[in-house]
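TA notes, week 10

Several of you asked for a full example with nothing omitted. So below is the full record: structure tokens for the whole chain, then the designed sequence directly under it. When grading your own attempts, check the secondary structure regions first.
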């Protein structure tokens, strides 16, 4: 069965459906609850917690004050293990610039909403993305695959209600909500800020928009060792931690050095670009460390092919294709090629930068490891002259040395075929 889509408030009211709302606690989703209360539409608000610093109790109280039943789910652990981990393997950098973060959270939120709708016997899922946000296609594509029989409502796609109008209506209804011109999406992997003066990329980004990397930056330097197993971090300075714990630790530490600030434009489904400012300290640190370890352990063909597939993996995630067969297949490839990516990366963190200070792995493909393994003895009779002359032959041919590999030599002259000759 194909999903029915509703893109305005009038049609949603006429449908009379009881809904599951993906509830962030922000202005857009809170305004929807106010509207639903005024129009006698029953709503179960689902809040998926993706940051332990978030006040889930306050968010639940706000939703209940607006007449909704509210269910909160702690999704930090599953988000780290099932969604961020593949992004580390695949170096999930949007346009090779900033780490994807919101795009990773949408398929998990959609999955939990579909599960709740099925459990409660509800037939409609609502999210409050606007037409300029890629979250709309990410939610919709995920819900289509996971719950093809569900009605999907995106009521603010065609509603000309401005953000300040929603905020004014909420204040008039006595709802205590932060009066901010910014729209902020936050999870443990990243923080995305947009709207206000940020709508114009010609404006200089004000310092006050930064939270994780704000304040006075540290002027010293710190070194830390990250241990990887199968391409994922498992310990910091030999202390074993869960992936979520590692991310939160590095978020705080990296943020104190102002590591992981990004400012750029994101393509939308409309072909226009949306200006966003991001903070992702832990992502910047872990991806830098993982890249260094892979470069030491994978050969050049593996790195070349993986690099091409990383871009494809990230593009699928950004376009809302998390639950596609192709994304899942690429993820399995990333997992397999990371099977032996084990070792320790020592990083030096200082003001705004991450530097690989040392790298240790028994499987690294560098000469020192080769010498320790006795590989040098295999080449005791190796002639570097032969090596370089043979390997330069194709270059000479391309430069027009006159040799035609498709033309055999005349056996009557007694000359040996080229492939049997020995270079003196």
């Amino acid at each position: 069965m194909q999903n029915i889509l509703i893109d305005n408030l009038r049609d949603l009211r006429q449908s009379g459906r009881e809904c599951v709302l993906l509830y962030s606690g922000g202005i857009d989703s809170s305004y929807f609850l106010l509207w639903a209360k005024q129009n006698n539409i029953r709503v179960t608000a689902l809040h998926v917690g993706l940051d332990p610093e978030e006040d889930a109790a306050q968010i639940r109280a706000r939703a209940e004050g607006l007449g909704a039943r509210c269910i909160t789910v702690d999704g930090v652990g599953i988000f780290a293990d099932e969604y961020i981990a593949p992004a580390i393997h695949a170096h999930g950098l949007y346009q090779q610039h900033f780490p994807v973060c919101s795009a990773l959270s949408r398929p998990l939120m959609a999955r939990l909403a579909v599960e709740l709708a099925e459990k409660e016997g509800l037939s409609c899922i609502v999210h409050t993305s606007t037409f300029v946000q890629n979250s709309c296609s990410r939610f919709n594509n995920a819900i289509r695959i996971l719950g093809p029989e569900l009605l999907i409502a995106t009521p603010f796609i065609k509603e000309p209600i401005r953000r300040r109008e929603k905020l004014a209506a909420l204040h008039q209804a006595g709802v205590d909500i932060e009066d901010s011109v910014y729209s902020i999406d936050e999870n443990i992997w990243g923080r995305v800020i947009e709207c206000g003066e940020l709508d114009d990329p010609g404006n200089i980004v004000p310092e006050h928009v930064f939270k994780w990397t704000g304040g006075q930056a540290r002027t010293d330097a710190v070194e830390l060792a990250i241990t990887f197993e199968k391409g994922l971090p498992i310990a910091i300075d030999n202390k074993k931690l869960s992936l979520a714990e590692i991310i939160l630790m590095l978020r705080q530490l990296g943020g104190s050095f102002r590591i992981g600030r990004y400012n750029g434009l994101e393509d939308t489904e409309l072909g226009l670009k949306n200006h966003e400012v991001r903070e992702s300290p832990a992502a910047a640190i872990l991806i830098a460390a993982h890249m260094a370890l892979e470069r030491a352990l994978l050969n050049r063909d593996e790195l070349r092919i993986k690099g091409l597939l990383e871009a494809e993996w990230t593009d699928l995630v950004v376009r809302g294709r998390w639950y596609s067969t192709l994304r899942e297949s690429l993820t399995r490839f990333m997992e397999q090629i990371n099977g032996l990516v084990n070792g320790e990366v020592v990083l030096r963190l200082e003001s705004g930068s991450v530097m690989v200070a040392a790298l240790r792995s028994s499987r690294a493909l560098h000469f020192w490891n080769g010498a320790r393994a006795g590989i040098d003895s295999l080449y005791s009779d190796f002639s570097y002259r032969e090596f370089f002359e043979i390997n330069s032959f194709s270059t000479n041919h391309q430069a027009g040395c006159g040799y035609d590999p498709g033309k055999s030599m005349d056996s009557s002259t007694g000359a040996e075929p080229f492939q049997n000759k020995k270079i003196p």
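The chain is about 40% helix and 20% strand. Use that as a sanity check on your answer.
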